[in-house]
Design goal:
By secondary structure, this protein is mainly beta. The protein contains no helices and 12 strands. Strands 1-9-6-11-4 form a 5-stranded antiparallel sheet, with no helix packed on it. Strands 8-7-10-5-12 form a 5-stranded antiparallel sheet, with no helix packed on it. It is globular, with a radius of gyration of 15 Å. 24% of the residues are buried.
Length: 152
């Protein structure tokens, strides 16, 4: 696993009416601070990648659909420099993925599974100069998203 990335198994409560997932609590050891919560929708098969944050820690959980989270460590001096990792998340499981600052990341809605919605409980509010972006096909290490076309 990429240094600093964590996967937390969270409770999911189900009954005949539906389900409730617990994403993050202030009294959990992996809680850092609260900045903002947002939801990101992704069309079936689409890829939203790549980006990294300078100071923000991300906490991802899937609300709807099925996704593949892509991670790439290009942090100078990191023990896992040059490594990539993929983590599959879907609405039927309650896993929280914590991504530290500096790790390139993105996600893809698994083709054929419909639109996906990802929730992020970030440690900081979004600031345009705090994030860096890169086109999906420009990452300097190999990451396999499966078959796709670059839009545009």
């Amino acid at each position: 696993m990429i240094a600093g990335v964590q996967v937390h198994v969270k409770p999911i409560f189900k009954d005949e009416r539906g389900w409730v997932k617990r994403m993050l609590r202030v009294d959990e050891s992996h809680f850092i601070q609260f900045g903002e919560i947002y939801f990101s929708a992704c069309r079936d098969g689409a890829i939203k990648a790549w980006h990294r944050h300078k100071v923000m820690t991300l906490n991802y959980m899937v609300v709807k659909g099925d996704i593949l989270v892509g991670l790439a460590d290009l942090r100078a001096g990191s023990l896992t420099y040059g490594k990539t990792e993929s983590i599959r998340l879907n609405e039927g499981v309650a896993h929280l993925v914590t991504i530290p600052p500096g790790v390139w990341n993105g996600y893809r809605a698994i083709p054929g599974t419909g639109e996906a919605i990802l929730a992020n409980c970030a440690t900081h509010s979004h600031l345009p100069d705090e994030i860096e972006r890169m086109d999906v096909d420009k990452l300097p290490v190999i990451f396999d998203w499966g078959a796709y076309e670059v839009a545009g």
